[in-house]
Amino acid sequence: HYEIAACGSVPLMTYPTIERDHPLIEHEHGFYFGAEPGGLARCLQAIHSRKPNLIQMGRDARDHVKRNHRWSAQSDRMRRALEELCSAST
């Protein structure tokens, strides 16, 4: 889904079953739907009602991914976490 957002498109995703790092926010960066019967249809109706906002949502999703999910952003967060862990143990 991050690859879709990185291209400036609005991702359509099932609700996650795991905790995510800097997740895409529903109705801001993309759309989530439940796997139950009718879940996808309800999501598609929500998408249709937000049609004028889709271009901006795609831009916001792309910016979110650039800010939080590039290798450099992830390695910076990992480095900071390790530095905090090391300084706390001394």
User: Helical residue percent?
Assistant: 40-55%
Which band does the percent of strand residues land in? 5-15%
- What series of H and E elements makes up the topology? HEEHHH
Give the neighbour order of strands across the main sheet: 1-2
Q: Low-confidence runs (pLDDT<50, min 5 residues)?
A: none
Number of strands: 2
Distance between the termini: 40 Å
How many distinct helices?
4
> What summary fits the major beta sheet?
2 strands, parallel
Which radius of gyration do the C-alpha atoms yield? 16 Å
Backbone structural class: mainly alpha
Write down the overall mean pLDDT: 91
Choose one word for the global shape. elongated
How would you describe what is shown here?
The protein is mainly α. Helices cover 54% and strands 7% of the residues. It has helices at 2-6, 39-49, 54-68, 71-88, and strands spanning 12-14, 31-33. The radius of gyration is 16 Å and the shape is elongated. It starts with a helix and ends with a helix.
Record keyword descriptors for this entry:
mainly alpha, two-stranded parallel ribbon, about 90 residues, 2 strands
Give the secondary structure arrangement, pairings included.
Blueprint: H1 2-6, E1 12-14, E2 31-33, H2 39-49, H3 54-68, H4 71-88
Parallel strand pairs: 1-2
Short description:
The protein is mostly helical and 90 residues long. The protein has helices spanning 2-6, 39-49, 54-68, 71-88; strands at residues 12-14, 31-33.
